[in-house]
Amino acid sequence: MFKEVRKKVESFPGYLKSWVGTFKGGLTIFCLIILLIIPLLTQNAYYLGEFFTLAMIYAIFAASWDLLAGIAGQVSFGHAIFFAISGYISSAFIVYFGFHWIIALFIGSIIAVVFGLLIAVPCLRLKGPYLALGTMSFGLILFLLFTMGGLSEILGGSGGISKVPPISLNPVIEYIITLFIMVIVFIIIIAIAKSNFGTILKSIRDDERGSDASGINTTKYKIFAFMISGFFAGIAGALFAMHYRGVNPAFFQPLYSFYAIVIAALGGIATIRGSALGAFFFVIVTRIFENIEFFADVEPLFFFSIILIFTIRFAERGIITPAIEQLKDLWDLVLGK
Amino acid sequence: MIEEFLVLGLIQGFIYALLAMGFSLVYGVGGVLNLSHGGFYLLTAYVFFWNYTSLGVVNTIIISLIMITIIGGLAYLFLIKPLEHTPIGVVIGTFALAFFIEQFVQFAGDAKIHSDIPPLIEGSIEFLGFEIDAHLLLIIIVSLTVIVSLTIFINKSKLGKSIRAVSQDREAATLMGINADRILLYTVMISAFLAGIAAILYIPKDIVAPHKGWSILINSFAVVVLGGMGSLLGSVAGSFIIAFVGSYCNFYIDPSVSYLVPIIIIVVMLIFRPQGLFGKKELL
Amino acid sequence: MGIILEVKNLTKKFGGLTAVNDFSFELKRGEFVGLIGPNGAGKTTVFNLISGFEKLNTGLIKFDGKDITGLKPYKIVNLGIARTFQLVRSFKYLNLLDNVTVSCLSSRGREVSKETGTDEYASSILASVGLVDKARLPPIILPHGDLRKLQIAKAIGTNPELLLLDEPFSGLTYEEQLGITDLIKKLHDDGVTIFITGHVLRELMTLVPRVIAMHQGKFIIDGSPLEVAKNKIVREAYLGKGEEFA
């Protein structure tokens, strides 16, 4: 195993050079450069925060879902659970125990994973829509538990935990740090998807019985997929809580689970990268709807639900990925290939 | 207290039965768990709600039921059938439709909770010395009629036999000359029709709100998980069990607990007995 | 050399139907044995029971002396039994190379593939079945014969000692059958014990030196192809169903 890793590390610089040369690689670098330039164009808390930082948080959330659903084939409708648990735990560690936000973020995400295991294990023998409804049910239980009586009193009541300090009061710093986290998370998730481990997950997605017959302990790998996905969803949840200065039971609502699904689907299921594009599309269009008179009455979600239907029906790979491929073809044409 | 407990249990039992039978049928015949089932209910509820004052109750009922049956058919043709071979596609596709319906009713109407729909029949009727609310009687009579008719239809009619054939073995049925796709189309339309009836009967006793779609879906799922997928008897039995347990919680424990009942049942059943009480099809 | 598979009193019921009824046999290491019976005789069920995809009602299955009754399929694969399916299946969104790589990543497969690296090992397996030039292509474009080869390649990836081939000739053209036959013979020559079902009998009976026949879940006879072909019950079972029997 070490030989393989060393080979990969040694060939990395060459690999990187050739990757940048490809269309996808170049486009990714181009987008990253744009993202780096944005804080130079505006330091406004609203524009930076509600357009871009939020989009990056959703991107992480959707990518984590895409790993579980698109790569491993486990379509979860309860992803808000990881999001919210991590939001609560990390907020509690920052506000009540005075931990630094990075440590709180890790603790929150790890606890979210543990929780996710409790849910994943019974759900593991469910396939397709059963898994969807099973995870939705768990999500609903937690949502109801946190909004009514009992548990919610222990954990901050319906008001949740408030006065959570953000990563930084300076929106530019918050933006840069979130960008940095998003890039790292995406590199890791994409690396996982492309690795042998990712191939095994895909085999479970494509034909679980066949994967069993190939000697794969599918239960073990499904658990891993849930754990890894839950961890990254937890990171998103902690970032979200800090961004909005607090956490409350609404974090558990099915709608947030839906956001992950809609964004990942718009960007292209199983593409991982698509989640980033989908997230920016989702957030920016939502903000545009909010700010333009003409669309004042229209709920952006209504618009997205229509796009989602057509996307899933006609464009399995999302609307963004094929659009990029069209761009690539155009580019090749222009370059005379 | 006991009267209210019984009444709510009865009402919900019948309503859930109508919903669960359709849901279970579609799964049994096509292997599809239609996540937009709650959406069918929701859409009918809203269409009825928007139009009953201007068009009259009876007309609105007829129009709504025809509408939802057609929409069910279109949903099958444009969303379910083309995505049949991608399991992820069907799940997200039917979810997307449900999501769209939830957004649509808010777009075309509003996001408020409406609880002021008048009963379809006013007043009460004397029956065996009891004063029975007329609408309740209507629910019971209509539901019983539908349930019995559906059971007879499935067991005796030609189409019903085709439906049973496809649900038992799709390939074998196709070899016998049955057009399985068309059978599934009719099944989805029937389930939409049943959901529509359930909506019209229930909303005077319940609310009209955008999030109802999901709770109806979860309820339907809970009933079929409890009763067993593909079993009509299981759907009816499961409906009443869940309805009365929920009603009990509502009146004797705490109303908010009754929301948890179907969800807890789903979780417990999936862990311990996924095939349900009367389950036939393997769901794993 | 030694008994590699011991099956005793295997019984499997599906509701009221007894698919496999008190079925017993033994396979020696390195043998090449056929399992025949008309459609519905229970052959695939026997395979499913041995490979762990179905739970038996009564009976005992021992592999290399070890009791494997009730083990999960992946564990049985990692002990050394691989199988192919009657209806071809593949990981449809993975290319051929990745299809085989999955098997090479099983714990048993890793023991071999870690020497050369999984990619190289999977490539060599594809080469041995003649599919390496299509390594980067998805299974969907493959003709039926190649899909059957892919299945065998996937099974090889787990480094099996015993290979259960479920109707590997069904749906193939004559040329394709020859290709598969060569492949299977080569595997046998390499020391893999082969247990193969089929009801394209002409091909099977000339291929294997020993045949076990079953009908309606029950054991009928175990012997050379000639003996089995002459057996009265076997002939009735096949002729009664109007199936080809040479």
Nearest-integer average pLDDT of chain B: 88
The CATH C-level class name of the largest domain in chain C: Alpha Beta
Helix content of chain C: 25-40%
Low-confidence stretches of chain B: none
- Please report the distance between the alpha carbons of the first and last residues of chain B: 42 Å
Give a structural overview.
The complex is a heterotrimer of chains A (337), B (284) and C (246). Chain A has helices spanning 2-10, 12-21, 23-41, 45-71, 80-95, 101-123, 128-147, 151-154, 171-194, 196-206, 208-213, 218-243, 254-267, 273-291, 300-314, 320-335; strands at residues 161-162, 246-247. Chain A is mostly helical and 337 residues long. Chain A has a domain at 45-254. The longest helix of chain A is centred in the first third of the chain and has 27 residues, at 45-71. Chain B is 75% helix and 3% strand. In chain B, β1 (124-127) and β2 (130-133) form a beta hairpin. Helices cover 39% and strands 25% of the residues of chain C. Chains in contact: A-B, A-C. The interface between A and B is large, with 42 and 43 residues.
Key descriptive features of the protein:
heterotrimer; B: 284 residues; mainly alpha; 11 helices; globular; C: alpha/beta; Rossmann fold; six-stranded mixed β-sheet; four-stranded antiparallel β-sheet
In short:
The complex is a heterotrimer of chains A (337), B (284) and C (246). Chain A has 337 residues and is mainly α. Chain A contains 16 helices and 2 strands.
